[in-house]
Amino acid sequence: MLATLNLHWLHSLPQWEFSLIVVISFVAVAVGGQVAMRPLLRRWFGGREYNEIVGHYLSAFGVLYGITLGLISVGAWENYGDVESKVSAEAAAIASLYRNVDFYPEPVRTELTGLLRSYTRQIIDVSWPEMQRGIVPRGGHPLIMGFQKTLVAYEPRTEGQKALHQESLYRFGQVIECRRLRVDCVEGRLPTILWVVVLAGSFMSFVLTWLLVVENHFLHDLLTAIMAVLLALLIFFLITLDLPFQGQHSVGPDSIELVYDQVMNPHP
Q1: What is the distance between the terminal CA atoms of the chain, rounded to a whole angstrom?
Q2: CA distance 116 to 118
Q3: How far apart, in whole angstroms, are the C-alpha atoms of residue 23 and residue 219?
Q4: What is the per-residue pLDDT for 4?
Q5: Neighbours of 114 (CB within 10 A)
Q6: What pLDDT does 226 receive?
Q7: Cis before residue 107, ω within 30 degrees of 0?
Q8: Amino acid 96: pLDDT
Q9: What whole-number percentage of the chain has pLDDT above 70?
Q10: Using H for helix, E for strand and C for coil, what is the string for the chain?
Q11: What does the alpha-carbon distance between residue 28 and residue 36 come to, in Å, rounded to a whole number?
């Protein structure tokens, strides 16, 4: 099934090349099947007298399939936007935590801020390239565990330090939660059954066009090819959004890089 196949190599291709592969594949199936079926139609069904019936079925099927494909596309787009929101939330949580521990007394301050900078840099330089290859990142765990041990071991003395420490513990919990949600999104994708519905619906659309008897073969092939291109672009759109961390238009670490540059290493 499409959802279980390793399609990561496709996302490593340039976007135009990836889309071209999908479009050519759909057009080849649609037009090639039509050319192969054309000599058999008159033998099986006769002439053009049944074109009106096929046209009615094609119209009804197009409406049902179009609605289904549209709803799936909207769901995929919303999931893509949700992943972007999770990354932004993680960046905001890291920034808030860093600002808090930056007010701790020495030597705890230097140790905590150094660990958090290393962890943030690890997300950008190591974890993100792994996610772009479809690999669930695991390298940041020792850094975050070291930060947790140092943070929990700190004993505040004044009331202000206690309030700040309580806030830091809360922000650290947010960082852990956001990290977990981001990592879970690496392997999240559309269910296999949805891909079966999408691809089967596309193929059935082609079959219905094959059943039409048209005297002008070039016009028939051209119209079928145009429909195949449209369906191919929609499928390409779904494949691109199905893996939000892969491809040229994937979700990037921009918000986390902004936190590292402006909060952890502010320019004078």
Answers
A1: 54
A2: 5
A3: 19
A4: 40
A5: 13
A6: 94
A7: yes
A8: 94
A9: 91
A10: CHHHCCCHHHHCCCHHHHHHHHHHHHHHHHHHHHHHHHHHHHHHHCCHHHHHHHHHHHHHHHHHHHHHHHHHHHHHHHHHHHHHHHHHHHHHHHHHHHHHHCCCCCCHHHHHHHHHHHHHHHHHHHHHHHHHCCCCCCCCHHHHHHHHHHHHHCCCCCHHHHHHHHHHHHHHHHHHHHHHHHHHCCCCCCCHHHHHHHHHHHHHHHHHHHCCCCCCHHHHHHHHHHHHHHHHHHHHHHHHHHCCCCCCCCCCCHHHHHHHHHHHCCCC
A11: 12
Structure tokens at 84: 């972007």
Token code pair at residue 49: 């007298």
pLDDT tens sequence across 221-258: 999 999 999 999 999 888 888 888 887 778 889 999 99
Q: Could you read off the pLDDT of 172-182 as tens digits, one per residue?
A: 999 999 999 99
Indicate whether 189 pLDDT > 90: no
- Cα–Cα distance, 187 to 256 (Å, whole number): 21
Residue type, 188: G
Across the chain, which distance is largest between two alpha carbons, in Å? 93
**Backbone CA torsion sign across 237, 238, 241, 243:** negative
Least confident interval from 45-59, 82-96, 160-174, 243-257: 45-59
The tokens for 165 are 């420490």
> pLDDT, tens digit, for every residue of 91-146?
999 999 999 999 999 899 999 999 999 999 999 999 998 888 888 888 888 889 99
In the block, residue with structure tokens 């808030």: 96
Tell me how crowded residue 107 is: count the other CB atoms within 10 A of its CB: 8
* Residue entry with tokens 């972007």: 84
